[in-house]
User: What shape does this take?
Amino acid sequence: MKKVFMVCLSLPLFILCSCGGGGGGGTSSTPTTTVSSNSSSVSTSSVASSSKASSSAFSWSSVPALKDLASFPIGMEVSAADQERSIFTFPSQLPTIEKHFNSLVAGVIMKMSFLHPNENEFFYADADRLHGYAVDHNMLLHGHTLIWHWDSQIPAWMKNYTGDWATMLDNHVAQICTHFAGKVSSWDVVNEALDENEPSGYRQSIFYQRIGKKYIENAFIAARKADPNAVLYYNEYNIELSQTKLNFMLAMLDDFKSRNIPVDGVGFQMHLDLFNPSIDQIKRSFKAVADRGYKIRISELDIPVNYNSTLVLTDTYAQQQKERYKSIVQAYLEVVPENQRTGITFWGLVDGESWYNYIGLPAKEWPLLFNDDYSPKPAFYGVAEALAGK
Ligand code: XIL
Assistant: This one.
């Protein structure tokens, strides 16, 4: 229950409504399918036929490689180590990953509790192996994430820590950034530190409670010192949806800039839905950040569609999703100056592995670019067309 609630914090509006228990987001909210959080796979048989077709207004001679269409990194979130869909144990996904993506981010294994399991113990072997894979395939590795409030990702020892928190957290950041210097090209230094429902704008995380808002700037300072070459991001969700949250973030960044706190860019997670926020609103939020000179990554893009708890990805949803993906990528290209575009990363490869299908939502979701058999969905062609300017 707690986990579902926490997950809801970063879900698109319509899912947030339905999983919060306060009225469904769709017209028919009868649950039809439940995907348990530990189910090992999600059936592909419920994909409507035309969503499997090569649906594009343009006749590509073959499936284009996304990375060849872009002048910035195209990223993929992957499982690694001994996770269920690890790239090291689930090889059928590799041709698709290697064809389309030139940047990787670990969905789980580079979070706090994995890299720093005990106060005096850091664990790098799994992440180093992922880095080796990235190097072998000419891919960048983006680090996610040094500080995040998510309860299960904060190591138990840290939650119980009774010493000097500021020193302890500085050491956490410094040790990890030192180890990965020259390996990761960029870091999400702090993830999701803001909460627009708090009068202060700051999430009441354990870090905020122990140190105050200074933990955020401390982390950037420690990261820059330990790895002067990594591009340092503040990563956040709903900054394109909530003007209040965007304003809190801009105020924080303006303050940082005036005091030379080393933030290089902003990661817009963009776990969006089909309709909200509007494309104009998305453009305005990109522009507000771009005008301040920051690099912008779309860091965790996915677009769930299942408003009505259908059992199949309907053609209507598939086409709406294609247009939504296309217009988001177009907005990024239109508003963010070329030298500030640092990439678009998708949060998962095939629909069946999306995190949305593992968090106890009432119905199955299809938020990603590929069907479970790795065939490209219309959504894929929406991204490809936008990148190719078609
Ligand atoms: C999610 C992963 O995809 C899941 O596998 C994990 O159980 C929980 O975290 N915002 C973030 C990501 O910054 O780290 C989250 O990733 C999704 C929401």
